[in-house]
Amino acid sequence: MRLFVSEGVPGCLPVLAAAGRARGRAEVLISTVGPEDCVVPFLTRPKVPVLQLDSGNYLFSTSAICRRQNL
């Protein structure tokens, strides 16, 4: 999985905490991007945080990302 975060974006702090708790149970690559970088190809506006799953699907809800990383 790959987690995209940006400094200063409020939703990034909880997902980074969840990623820290998930260490050892899941491999998560954390990438810092700019707040204006478009990470999800099918969204017209930039959105972070975003979790790209190994299947290629994207989660861009902070609560959904935190739940996924706690599995």
TrEMBL record:
Gene3D superfamilies: Glutaredoxin (3.40.30.10). It holds the Pfam family GST_N_5. InterPro entries: MARS_N. This is MARS isoform 25. The gene is MARS1. Residues 1-67 form the Methionine--tRNA ligase N-terminal domain.
